[in-house]
Design goal:
By secondary structure, the chain is an alpha+beta fold. It has twelve helices and 32 strands. The relative contact order is 0.15. Bound molecules: MU-OXO-diiron (FEO) and calcium ion.
Length: about 675
């Protein structure tokens, strides 16, 4: 099937070969194409990059331009409530403690005004911060643990509880934004949602037989039950989004890693049939400490357990008693994000990237309209709508293909595939298979997808899609399809990644057609060589930022873009995950460029993270005088690229970072806030 559907790299290449010879055509700037409503909006708000670019560094701190400062807002283990010790002892972590403390490995961030209003007012004295806690890192936990063999089941359960979502109230005082503790759970908005929290499944796949089978086992395992709910909570919470009606969307990504089992366990589970079907899409580990994982996360005990994850979870941050809802209408995949925009007629559009090599980009369009005057009327909007996958065409156009059982079964029959879908629930459960059959374009690990919106959440038409990288290139093509290369006829990886721009037809995010172009290539615009040795000695990275002889960026080099934030002046803030694996002289960082600029796009470096950390969840307060981001897994590797996961258990001693507490402190994932010393707008 891959042979039939063109990879995005083929399309980039072939489009370049068609357009590259046409002198003067603005290849990399769609503002040069037919005028759209977005172009007018963009030209009215010319963005500048009014700061001095930060030099590359491996410093173990936050490095910022002159005139900017940072502080920690909250970090792993900080108490959310008064009833527990304000001091965090990572060696004493228990499930009960972790259920009242900020989670580990913070990723996506979202901010909500302390009282719901639409559109959100610019001035806020209080906000609610929602943060994803993507995964639990054993090597960065339990400082006194001598070896993984010494782990107890209780310690493993506590690590599971470190995952999910953390919600915390913020207050702006004279010194800036700070996190608040509540007196007790449900006495304010602070909250932890973990893999043990009761959630509801809603939408067409809510009663899929796999979900029903797994739910019975989960609810047998968990004492923390709620009528009509499943105590499976949420895991692998990567990026997400926020809705115009003031709810948080948390995207479940690499859920497969939470399931353990030996090869024989998996063989037994495969005989159930469902696992074998699911495994072809997601794969499951052939090992792991199955004896220690909570029972519901052992595939031998709960072979349908993975069907409970890979969904978009909607959470009401204003009601700490609300039950999170898994919106099955949006499909099950390794969701990086779930970002929203309003269509021209007020329907709601949710964009999603499925972050794995050669997976797809999706969007969901609701059947009903957003109601700005009655928040409750929007409660179940995401249960009813149409899911689409993106197909990129060689001529620079693109199509959103509706994913339905009939269409997927017809495509399977036409391709003589044995795959069939019983109904729409089955399509949503195995949506990757359906998208592939329908002809969705395989992508280089699509991560964040961000629509350019006006102040009323209405999409203007441009949408940026981040493809973080692709380490595998299994084919040869003449003429260098991907980027200018020293060996144009060889198969080529895409280790630095790239960013695409699509423009929805008519400036309407509900459109079924779009045009596309390359927004920026990761890599080094100043390199004298077209490839570079990567840290660790793998295949060299192709680092040219030119495509068909045309330069896409100027200024700073970067690799592995991951999450984006687009501010009100249409500056684009790019957070990286893995920059140091390609360009070892600089930790992961945040860069900025502008949406509307013509020609090669200027890139400035705004922030460099501490050693071993990735940067996630960039966003600003509504007044754009505070920039927030999540510093995830500081100390996961050292500046030479050695993973602490390997070195710690080989007698490697302390982690290579002490962020954010400094001194000799154990490192912790943390949310930070950046402000200007003169309190001006970020980036001006
Ligand atoms: Fe969780 Fe795709 O990053
Ligand atoms: Ca990510």
């Amino acid at each position: 099937m891959h042979g039939v559907t063109k990879h995005i790299n083929d399309l980039v290449a072939s489009r370049r070969s068609v357009l590259g010879g046409l002198a003067g055509l603005p290849l990399l700037n769609l503002a040069g194409c037919a005028s759209t409503p977005a172009d007018h909006a963009l030209s009215e708000t010319p963005a500048t990059l009014g700061f001095t670019s930060v030099a590359a560094t491996n410093a173990d701190t936050i490095t910022l331009p002159a005139g900017y400062r940072w502080r920690t807002v909250i970090a792993w283990g900080d108490a959310l409530f008064d009833g527990i010790s304000a001091e965090f002892d990572p060696d004493a972590l228990t499930r009960g403690e972790q259920e009242q403390r900020f989670g580990q490995s913070n990723d996506m961030l979202a901010l909500f005004g302390s009282e719901y209003a639409f559109p959100p007012p610019k001035d806020q004295d209080g906000m609610i911060l929602c943060a994803n806690n993507e995964y639990a890192s054993l090597e960065l936990a339990y400082p006194s643990l001598p070896s993984p063999q010494n782990l107890t089941a209780g310690q493993v359960e506590a690590l599971y509880a470190a995952v999910g979502v953390s919600i915390v109230e913020l207050e702006h005082d004279g010194a800036g934004w700070r996190a608040l503790r509540n007196s007790a759970p449900r006495q304010g908005r602070n909250r932890r949602i973990t893999p043990f929290t009761p959630v509801q499944f809603t939408g067409p796949a809510a009663r899929h037989p796999w979900i029903l089978a797994a739910s019975r086992i989960v609810n047998e395992c968990e004492p923390n039950r709620q009528e009509g709910a499943v105590s499976c909570g949420t895991v692998a919470n990567c990026a997400g989004g926020q809705t115009p009606w003031g709810t948080y969307l948390s995207a479940e990504e690499n859920f497969d890693g939470f399931f353990s089992g030996s090869s024989s366990d998996l063989d037994a589970a495969r005989r159930e049939g469902a696992l074998a079907l699911d495994e072809s899409s997601f794969g499951y580990p052939n090992g792991g400490p199955e004896a220690l994982a909570p029972r519901q996360f052992r595939v031998a005990e709960n072979p349908h357990g993975p069907s409970l994850y890979g969904w978009i979870v909607e959470i009401d941050p204003y009601d700490p008693t609300s039950t999170p809802k898994k919106r099955t209408a949006l499909g099950r995949k390794k969701n990086e994000c779930a970002t929203t925009a309003l269509a021209a007629d007020g329907r709601v559009v949710v964009y999603m990237g499925d972050d794995q090599r050669n997976e797809h980009v999706y969007k969901f369009v609701t059947h009903s309209h957003f109601n700005p005057s009655n928040r409750d009327a929007n409660t179940d909007l995401l249960d009813d709508g149409q899911l689409y996958c993106a197909q990129f065409l060689e001529n620079g156009g693109g199509r959103w293909l509706a994913i339905t059982a009939d269409a997927a079964n017809a495509a399977a029959a036409a391709k003589e595939s044995p795959i069939r879908f019983a109904d729409q629930a089955d399509v949503l459960m195995r949506v990757r298979d359906a998208a592939r059959l329908l002809g969705a374009t395989p992508m280089d690990r699509p991560e964040d997808v961000e629509a350019v919106c006006d102040g009323n959440c209405r999409g203007l038409g441009p949408v940026l899609i981040v493809c973080t990288n692709n380490s595998e290139r299994g084919f040869e093509r003449p003429g260098n399809p991907r980027r200018d290369s020293a060996r144009p006829s060889s198969a080529q990886n895409n280790l630095p990644g790239h960013i695409l721009r699509i423009d929805e037809d008519g400036g309407d995010c509900a459109a079924e057609r779009f045009s596309w172009d390359v927004f920026a290539m990761g890599g080094d615009p100043n390199a004298s060589e077209l490839t570079a040795q990567v840290r660790g000695g793998g295949a060299p990275a192709h680092i040219s930022t030119k495509v068909a002889g045309e330069e896409t960026i100027t200024g700073e080099r970067f690799a592995c873009p991951d999450n984006l934030f687009i501010d009100s002046t249409h500056r684009v803030w790019i957070a990286t995950d893995g920059n140091d694996a390609v360009f070892a002289d600089c930790n992961d960082n945040v860069l900025a460029t502008t949406l509307a600029s013509a020609g090669p796009r200027q890139i400035k470096r705004f922030l460099v993270a501490p050693v071993g950390a990735e940067v996630c969840g960039p966003l600003m307060a509504p007044d754009e005088r505070a920039f927030f981001c999540a510093i995830q897994h500081p100390g996961a590797n050292n500046a030479e690229g050695l993973d602490f996961a390997q070195s710690r258990w080989a007698g490697g001693g302390r982690p290579p970072s002490n962020f954010p507490d400094g001194g000799n402190a154990w490192p912790r994932s943390a949310v930070i806030v950046v402000t200007r010393e003169d309190d001006g707008r970020i980036g001006d």
